[in-house]
Amino acid sequence: MAIIGGGITGCATALYLSILGHQVTVLERNDIAAQASGLNMGGLGGSGWGKPPDLQGYLTVGSVALFAELQNDRGHDIEFRLSGTVQAIQTEAEFDFARDHVLSARAAGHDLELITTREARTIEPGLSPALHGVVFGGPNRGQANPMKTTRAFAQAAQNEGAQISKDCNVSAIETDTAGAFRITTSTGRVLAESLVIAAGAWCREIAAMLNLDIPIVPVRGQMWATQPAPPRIFHTIAATESPFAWRREEFAGPDEPPNQTHLGERRLTRHIYGRQTMEGEIIFGGDRQTLGFDQTPDPEGITSNKVHAGEILPFLDDLAVHRTWAGLMPFSLDGDPFIGALPGYENLYIVGGLASSGFGRGPMAAKLLAESIHNGYPAACLLEADPARCVVKS
Fold it and tell me: Within this chain, do residues 171 and 205 fall inside the same structural domain, yes or no?
């Protein structure tokens, strides 16, 4: 079996298939974690399993358990910890929205709390006293080092017998009369009875080699970091501004995915997330813009994001931006991921379209796919991620 893509989903899929006894080769065109899996903020987790659990619960909380297993049971130092998340509320309108959201979430069995700014500043002292409150997500939210984690999944897969082929660019895929996949790469031809596409923002381009159209588009997410500083941030940081704004219809575009900060070139909202790493860097990001495969950071977007971060944590105004970067996130046009068998072929699968949460949702998505391949049928929770809903063969 071949897996195209050496990000966190590809490497985790290799691990869980190998554990189940499959012979697996990962084909990565660059290095492990070279793209979004190694470039993101490193935030993990959602708001709990829910009653009953839905796909989001499985992917977020399930992945947190797999991060813990990777570090605590398999012995990989990935800087994993359950730090919790504080989501800043900056206006009265946002407060009303957050209150209703928390009440609804708690009724559905999720772990969220609405706390006062005073309470929030006892657990995150750097928060602005001008906030209108905070949504606190605790027991299922955390953080880890993206580069170390993705490479740890790769190493764990190798420990279970998987092969990792780096600098191995896929240029063509064909099927033979027996249905096997003949994969042309920059290092030679690979023959595989089964194939998993786990190529992140490049899933659509890989699938096109098999005359499939998968509606996944690359979305640029950009980040900035300070130089290492003494410990000042103890949770992952978010804000209510963007979820509050994304309810509006103007955020829908015919060829753009949901939950973006821009529609075309026009900014519609700000989105933010950040944390302080074990090395002391303070990293933030959040802009989401559909620009093809352009990964060039935009200074205006970086400035907007840093201003927003300073409104939440005022001490950041005194710290300079030391470096900036950007990565490409795989967003599906309908907002749901693709996890499962692709139509039109035997033994062809995808795990992709995990949007801005591929790092935090990828491991469980990979495990669910691996179990589906091994068992011959998908778990019930994968119904909403069925690729057959909109993938077509031309």
Answer: yes
pLDDT for position 251: 60
b/e code 99-128 from CB counts within 10 Å (16+ = b) = eebbeebeeeebbbebbebeebbeebeebb
Q: Is the pLDDT of residue 253 over 70?
A: no
> CATH code at 60?
3.50.50.60
Choose among 124, 103, 110: nearest CA to 46.
110
- Host domain of residue 316: 85-137+217-332
The count of structural domains within the chain is 2
Question: Do 238 and 87 contact (CB within 8 A), yes or no?
Answer: yes
Three-class SS state of 279 = coil
Same structural domain for residues 262 and 321?
yes
Whether 236 and 376 map to the same domain: the answer is no
How many residues are given for the chain?
394
Nearest to 134, CA basis, from 119, 148, 152, 146: 119
The answer to whether residues 206 and 111 belong to one domain is no
Question: Are both 301 and 233 inside the same structural domain?
Answer: yes
Region at 290 (left for phi over 0; alpha for psi -120 to 50; beta for the rest)? beta
Report the mean per-residue pLDDT for the chain. Answer: 96
Interval 108-114 mean pLDDT: 94
Q: Measured between alpha carbons, how far is 132 from 93 in angstroms, rounded to an integer? A: 10
DSSP for residue 316: G
Q: Largest alpha-carbon pair distance within the chain? A: 68
The reply to whether 237 and 361 lie within a common domain is: no
Q: What is the CATH number of the domain that holds 93?
A: 3.30.9.10
Percentage of the chain beyond pLDDT 70 is 98
**Residues 48-57: contacts with CB within 8 Å, 24+ apart?**
48/109, 48/110, 48/111, 48/112, 48/139, 48/140, 49/109, 50/108, 50/109, 50/110, 51/108, 51/109, 53/381, 54/381, 54/384, 55/337, 55/381, 55/382, 55/384, 55/385
377, 350: one domain: yes
> Model pTM?
0.97
Name the nearest CA neighbour of 329 among 300, 305, 354, 362. Answer: 354
Answer yes or no: do 357 and 265 share one domain: no
Burial of 385 (0-12, 13-18, 19+ CB in 10 A): buried
Nearest of 285, 278, 326 to residue 303 by alpha carbon? 285
